[in-house]
Automatic annotation (TrEMBL):
This is Tetratricopeptide repeat protein. Keywords: Repeat, Signal, TPR repeat. Residues 1-21 form the signal peptide. InterPro entries: TPR-like_helical_dom_sf, TPR_rpt, Ycf3/AcsC/BcsC/TPR_MFPF. TPR repeats lie at residues 168-201, 202-235. PROSITE patterns: TPR.
Amino acid sequence: MKKTMRITILALILISNIGFSQNDLTELKFDTKYFDAVDKWVAFPKKDTDSTYAYGFIYLDNQAGFTFNYETKFQIKEQKLINIKRDSTVGFMKYRLEPNTSLVSVLTDNQISALNLPKEPEWLSIYKESSDQVDYLKQEGYHYNHVGACEQALKPLLKAYEIQPHFDGLEFELAYAYNHLGQFEKAIPILEKAIESNPKNYYFFRELGYSYLGLNKVEDADRTYRKGIKMSDNDFEKSEMSVNMAQAYFKLKNKKKFDEWAELTRKYSTKDKRYLQYIDQFEQNWNKK
């Protein structure tokens, strides 16, 4: 009697495991942003009128950015993934991924195996040859920052910073990532050291002023932005620094200082007028709580 029960329970466990495996094989979850799926096999959602899913491998081309290498398509039939044979005359098809790229489904190990795919493509190694070098790491961080994935940018940027902190563009990217994440206190020492090394780079002053504003150190921001504006030859950057300070003084209801920075915003926005509307809104709402 006891032996029979053990066999029955074992059979139920096996049936349960088979069911789980089948669900895992055919379940697709389109919940991952492309920059969180780097070095992974992924599927893209299909249109309602389609019966197949395009799939391939996402990687980071250090020069061009996030890239999707199209493999082919598959169908789901009778709880199985069916590969659609690709035209053998067609070479690699690569697509540069843009911020509006749809969410993807990262393929599971079972799905990768069912599609007879390697863990990663052989050609991927070409794009990893210099992955430990400072210029590669800085550029990797740049690409993550560029799409707003600043948390992911920190790992390569910090690694590069330990090797060669004053590498061209590295300090800016690292400070930008910290500022974007609201970690202003971490950005400040990096920028201070950057300015010591290269005191004529107005981008450092722009980011440092932003850090000070993030910590409500308005006077420090005011002084820093003025230095940045003085050495900058870029009117758009000047207008951005100016409108940031105008906003700070709007919040403090310091009319005298606000007017100074509003005037500077207008002065440097003669060609690109995107910040003028903010000044108008601040003035229109000055007496509102």
